[in-house]
Amino acid sequence: MSLRSQLLKGILEGCILAIIENQTIYGYELSMKLQDYGLEVSEGSIYPVLLRLQKEKLIKGEMKKSPSGPNRKYYFITDEGIAALEDFKSNWEGIKVPVDRLLTKEET
């Protein structure tokens, strides 16, 4: 597994919660949305995360009719998921800022 893949795996839950917070979305559409942001993530990596987030009650899935083809499972964020996303954002800032300073050799 590449370093990029390992780093992305660590932040994927937060990225998925951030997208689902903004819109109800189904799995394939979520994969495309991540790609729009420059995050290449296979569907095979996304679905286990979605299942884990559901088990943790951070998101809920609901089957809905599709405008074309079979029904799709759409995901939406729960109140617990919003709290987890806020926690992720706080932790991300706590890591991102010092790492950016370190990488740019900017001292405090």
Topology, please?
Layout: H1 3-22, E1 25-26, H2 27-36, H3 43-55, E2 59-64, E3 72-77, H4 79-103
Antiparallel strand pairs: 1-3, 2-3
Note poorly predicted spans: none
CATH topology: Arc Repressor Mutant, subunit A
Class by helix and strand content? alpha+beta
* Average of the residue pLDDT scores: 92
Largest sheet: 3 strands, antiparallel
Number of beta strands: 3
Question: Could you tell me how far the N terminus lies from the C terminus, measured between alpha carbons in angstroms?
Answer: 34 Å
Number of domains: 1
Which sequence of strands runs across the widest sheet?
1-3-2
Number of helices: 4
CATH class: Mainly Alpha
CATH superfamily: Winged helix-like DNA-binding domain superfamily/Winged helix DNA-binding domain
Give structural notes.
With 108 residues, this protein is of the alpha+beta class. It has one domain: Orthogonal Bundle (Arc Repressor Mutant, subunit A), CATH 1.10.10.10. Helices cover 63% and strands 13% of the residues. The protein is built from 4 helices and 3 strands. The protein has helices spanning 3-22, 27-36, 43-55, 79-103, and strands at residues 25-26, 59-64, 72-77. A 3-stranded antiparallel sheet has the order 1-3-2. Strand 2 and strand 3 form a beta hairpin. Helix 1 crosses helix 4 and helix 2 (27-36) packs across helix 3. It is elongated and about 55 Å long.
